[in-house]
């Protein structure tokens, strides 16, 4: 397959315009049209519907677009990795769930970097689901996730154990409530594709409770924003103990026990099934798994 034609197709869809895509690619419109026609001819399928409103993917085009996203990403990674090898400077590409990436992991990365100054480290913070998708797209090689995804193409190793705690503002929160009372209190939760949300739904389902029975006032995609909401008295939330240690120590946040509801979980290092860590990647994985170091 001609990757240049595939890239032209991909950019055309992104721009939703042949004229805009041609300008972006530094091609004439007829030249771009010929590339798109050649790609369709090569694949034996019509990929785009052209109209005055722009371009629209056919069903075949949707399939090709999804593969193009992955293939072009891999192509970019190959070029980047070859350039890194030529520069003889090792790199770590890490993706982390927000519960770790916004709190404990930066400290671990800083310590590892001090011990290995020759390594360049890049970290992306995302939801656990997106971390797994980025592993599949080869944009990262090491993932830190909040629960074991049990995906066939993803391998995991346990880092540390943690627990989700229901917490509220320390000044006016009860120390214990029932499952029935849990349905009434205002809850601020993480977004639906987050690891935290998955763990909450799973634990409540085991108690015969579904999310629709809860009084969820709003969702936020940032643990820090949720903490701010709690501290200002806007509601309660389930948060990992790891990220609220300071607030608990300073008596700013009050843990609230819910009958016998416990939500333990583990953090994992995740990688692609057939991927072999480089020397420095393995060093980093060993570093954060080590019981003597782990997260700061």
Automatic annotation (TrEMBL):
Protein name: LysR family transcriptional regulator
Gene3D superfamilies per record: 3.40.190.290, Winged helix-like DNA-binding domain superfamily/Winged helix DNA-binding domain
Keyword Transmembrane: no
Keywords, comma-separated and alphabetical: DNA-binding, Transcription, Transcription regulation
UniProt similarity note: Belongs to the LysR transcriptional regulatory family.
Source organism: Tepidibacter hydrothermalis
One Pfam family named in its UniProt record: HTH_1
InterPro entries according to UniProt: LysR_HTH_N, LysR_subst-bd, WH-like_DNA-bd_sf, WH_DNA-bd_sf
The HTH lysR-type domain, residue ranges: 1-58
PROSITE patterns attached to this UniProt entry: HTH_LYSR
